[in-house]
Amino acid sequence: MKFTAPLAAVAACLVTACAQDQSAPSSASAPHEPSISIGAAGPVLTAPRKRRAPASYNAVNTSRPFVALTFDDGPHPQLTPQLLDVLRKEGVRATFYVIGRNVETYPEIARRIVAEGHEIANHSWSHPTLTAISAARLEKEITSTTEVIQRVTGRTPTNMRPPYGAVNERVRQSMFKNHGFDVIMWSVDPLDWRRPGAAVVRQRLVDGAKPGGILLAHDIHPGTIEAMPGTIRDLKAKGFGFATVSQLLALQDAPAPRSAPLLPDQAAVRRSE
Ligand SMILES: [Zn+2]
User: According to the CATH classification, is domain 5-45+55-259 in 3.40.50.620?
Assistant: First the structure.
């Protein structure tokens, strides 16, 4: 990876102390959540080094030129290993929102995800709409996935992504209180599940990338994997580096300036995936 001098300093931070900081400050991305303190100038961080309220992120407020590549719904027996090959070749770390039952079926791929330096995080056991299931089932979906990730990889996830981006205050509270999870959405959705072709996926991801961006993709579609070498090349050419979601959270700036609008809570508008 080629970095200018300031970027090299950030990269060093990413792989050492900052990467280990799991107590990133809570910054709200949903403007309608009464449980999260939102000031006129943006999210108010009342306790910058400690999570105090449920938080969801569409993107991370940072001026540093990093994005997080995220891949949902795997592990897939053929495509995830292909993707891991690409990421290794490009020297890029990503975040995998895995489905628990797929981890149980393909434990060796989950282990490889972790062994190669990627973040592994919770995307539920069977991919239901979390807002539509009982509290008991919600607990089972999330707990069983965390448990299989721990058993297979030895890692404990620190954040989750709700299937279909479906989240409400009940789910957010449960993720925070019962699991200590941040809820991670996305800032760029290439709609790769519609299989528009690798070139379109690449263009949408690259065009949408901004510092602190969280890029959504799925490692269960061949075109997505095909798009990745070019996507990564283009993003590097635009000056971006790559962080896992936890690393990106650790790069948060102070509260956003007045001129930076909050991103909308995409859960409210997007129900398809
Ligand atoms: Zn999914």
Answer: no
